[in-house]
Amino acid sequence: MRLAVIPARGGSKRIPRKNIRPFCGRPMIAWSIDAARGSGCFDKIIVSTDDEEIAAVARQCGAETPFMRPAELSDDHAGTVPVIAHAVEWHRQNGVAPDRVCCLYATAPFVQAEDLRTGLKMLEAEDCAYVFPVTSYPFPIQRAVRLTGEGRVEMFSPEHFYTRSQDLEEAYHDAGQFYWGRAGAWLGGEPIFSPGSIPLILPSYRVQDIDTLEDWKRAEWLFQALQAR
């Protein structure tokens, strides 16, 4: 059984009610649910939440909410892997045994159904624990600088001051959209960022973190531009 789990706790701090705040005219979580439904990948799409209002919106958008997430997995320190493992274990205890499980973030309006399908194919074709999308950094991370306590700057990697940008190794970061994984990997607590994972590389214009109100505004502009295209 292929299961989509959308984590959506109610206690967002930087952007209150982030998971159901209107994004381009719809609750944010609706875009992730639409992508999951449109992918055709899943036998079941659930939202794992501790919040009754989020649960109600999720059901209106076409997802199931078979349980309320326990408080110990709903605070600021709850990690993704334990939250998904809880959902897998709940299904096992209720007579369903998921084997392919996708954590799909509620705040991922740029996720595309085709990427979910591609990720599943990669997971099934390769000997790996997880598959997740990444994109490249827009600037060489080896030339990053930090601000010192005295208000000055210093390089993280000063040995690369004279290295040409084109000679530096390209670096990638998590796209923050979804993680396909085997049920055993989630239940075993295997780390996602490890050699057991395979990357699905996305173009940077389809990736946007949404952690602040400034991010939110930029994401809506980018989303509207992509929709118009």
UniProtKB/TrEMBL annotation:
Matches recorded under Pfam families: CTP_transf_3
Keyword Protein biosynthesis appears in the UniProt entry: no
Keyword Transferase listed: yes
Gene3D superfamilies xrefs: Spore Coat Polysaccharide Biosynthesis Protein SpsA, Chain A
Gene Ontology MF terms: N-acylneuraminate cytidylyltransferase activity
Keywords recorded for this protein, A-Z: Transferase
SUPFAM superfamilies per the UniProt record, alphabetical: Nucleotide-diphospho-sugar transferases
InterPro entries linked: CMP-NeuNAc_synthase (IPR050793), Cytidylyl_trans (IPR003329), Nucleotide-diphossugar_trans (IPR029044), PseF (IPR020039)
NCBIfam families in alphabetical order: PseF
UniProt-recorded name of the protein: Pseudaminic acid CMP-transferase
